[in-house]
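Lab notebook, bench 4. The sequencing result for the construct came back, and we need a structural model before the next group meeting so we can plan mutations. Quick request posted to the team channel:

Model the 3D structure of this chain.
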Amino acid sequence: MLGDLGVRHAWSVLDSEIGTLSFIDSDKTAEGARLVREGRAFSLNLAIDAFDPPLFGRSPVRHVVEVQGNEAQDVLEAFNPQASSQLDGLAHVRAREHGFFGGRTDLEAAREQIGIHHVAARGIATRGVLLDLAGHDEVDKVTPFDGRMYDAGLLAEIAREQGVDVRAGDVVLIHTGWTAHFLRTDAEERAAKRAWNGLRADEAMAQWLWDRRVAAVGADNPAVEAAPGSRDIGSLHRRLIPALGMSMFELLDLEALAAACRVSGRWEFFFVSVPLRIAGGVSSPANAMAIL
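Done. Here's the predicted structure in token form:
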């Protein structure tokens, strides 16, 4: 346990600069590649300027095209990798005084030892699984903005209904429908949206993901976990990133993939992500795709 936080950690059993992504070995990558049957590729990334302004007060990208003679080149004068579809790295969140994953209390040491460049050096290529919680919400007439918490029991139930099992080394994606609905609203409506559906942030959820040795978890909402959440329940970011070493994909574009999975009745695919190789980085654009 991490002191009085009531958070279980994996520091003594998982010694890796990439955390749970180390559950993806060569056999797992080969398993994911064998899922490619139709050759249909789906980008899971929104435009880098999809959110105007970006969420959580993050800086918007400033894109300039410079011309030199007959050549033009892009220059990003300001670019927050978390302004749109993103991957939270292991140096993104600390567990208060207990530190980052592995007990590293110094940010500079964490950036060097568990920074996003370690993930980027090998990339992520594995089996992906999509759990369609949005479809479940539609039946219950729940909107993506209701702040509904999906508990571990519900994830297991949806997986059974879809006929898919979650296995070691998988990347699990949660389809809530939030990004698609949010980006269709006008600026005034967006400003009023303060809640979103997502995973329940309790220990049972962290245990469910850890027991299945999930490599990473992602969603098409701003934080994977539900908001506004509950102080009594705690933070899933804290339970997963610094405690278990589990990275999180956020603000993914899952609409086309979810639609294709519904039609085919197949909810597993080859998942690939190649983060930016930023030395000491704490995050990256998701740069993710799924291939059926």
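The chain has a mean pLDDT of 96.
Will bring this to the meeting.
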